[in-house]
Amino acid sequence: PCSSQLAAMSTFAPPSRPVASSSTSIASGLPVTAPAEALVAAADAARNSGMRDVMPGSLAGEGGFDDASRRCSALLGKLPPMEGSVKYKRAWGIEEALDQHQCLMRQHELQSSIGQDHVQVRKMRVEFARLESQDAAARAREALSNGASQDTRRTLLEQVNEAATSLRLALQGLEIEELRAAEKTRRMEEEIEKNNREMVAMREAIDDVTNGGGPGATGSAATTEARERKWFYCSDCHVGGHGQRFCNYLLKRPNWRVYPSERWFEDKHGQVSHCPLGRRAVDFTDETYFSRISMHIKGRIWLEDKRKLYEFVPELMPLTYVINDQRWAGDPPPNEGPETPLMPWFVKETDRNWGTSVVCCQRPQECLGLAKPGAVYVVQRHIPKPLLYNNGEKCHIKYYNLLVGLADGVTWHLYTYKDGYLSISPKPWSPTDLSKETQVTIIRTKRINDWPYWPKVYDKCQRGICTVIERAASQGKLEGRNKLQFEIISADYIVTEDLDVYLLEFNTGPVLKDQEDSPDVHDAGMVDGALYIVEPYEGGSKDQWDGPFECKGIPPSPEEILPIETL
Question: Is the model's pLDDT at 242 over the cut of 90?
């Protein structure tokens, strides 16, 4: 399906330097006066003002050089700047790489032409300044030979000095412009060369995988054999989540390469799915069927859905009630009278996280009025005596976990991260202030490692997560695969003044930040350590991951491997 793209890649050659053309249209396709024509007009105007024969003694008095210099300055101000914004960015498919190559080449052509236009205007300004300097010197010599007065000599000397200064500045401006244009050209060619190398690497990756150098067959039982290979391959199939992020981390290793993805099919809703080129198996991709390593845990819904989670670990969570389609499912919470101390009640949609669907009320009898038709909610009363932050703000723990299902389909390994985050509300907590700013903590506010209570509650949180995973695995809620599977999952915990911990929810797609985007506070060590645990490599480390804690689940049923032609 990609023969034309492959042909384009196979005939690809590095670009030659484009020759500047005065007729090139510049700046977003808008018509611009050709710089050469503008320069001719400026020169003609200068000549018409007194430079017809460029004879000493006839130029300065007419103001021709000053007018020519002003025209050069005006022209420089109107020329487009050398500020090309297209830079190399990793491509994940052949079409994307070819499109990027075209953009980089077009930018090179336009910006090189613009740079030469700037240099040409600077050269013309130097010529004007040189003529002005020669004219001033000639007038000074003529005046000296004619015995001019002292005042005249002083005036002419000042004119000579001014002309010499103008010439020196014009020469400096030309030198700077030439260096600037050359540097810009060098940077653009570096971006093109990065794209060139990527195209070559893609071509080599396609050949290698086609000739059996990839992980092997597709499907859930793909490639559990251990064999020596020179290269390992990842593809971004645009499923979403952290797939592209994990690819970028794997590609930092010297023996990992991109294998291009392509359009797979489009469903009736217009949603386009992608797969590795030729529907080949790769070592890692976010499209599970084609991946040797799955980045999605089978059965994760039992962790994501707060109602399902409460069904099998109720002792770890606040007392929870359920609203289904604006009616209580099971026993409702007892009504509270005026004598009951006020405390917020939270109404949360069961399948949404990050506080996006949380609403608050003061009494349980108000909860039904907050529910929408057809939606399912969990309802929880605020825990008593919450442990508050320094200035009385509510806070909760973001506790990170790595869950790995081994390729035997039965064994589960849990790792917990020794660092984490506190999410802190911007306002002091009050049981009667129902605003989201007071009651709902969402944003990761700060690292947790300097919080004095962290060493006291870390083990308690860890034991809770171990209980969840052991129970979910033993009850078959977490389902094994015939391949390695993993997921980084965050857990939200809230702590009481007595240092008891309550599990609020899991997030199977937690916020993660990379060092490139957030140099000061990022999760690069955590992500790289997790990928090292999943796919070890020489020189790597598991960073601050604690574990593994092992448990056993129920063996998976044999999974059918569909032939490629049916996909």
Answer: yes
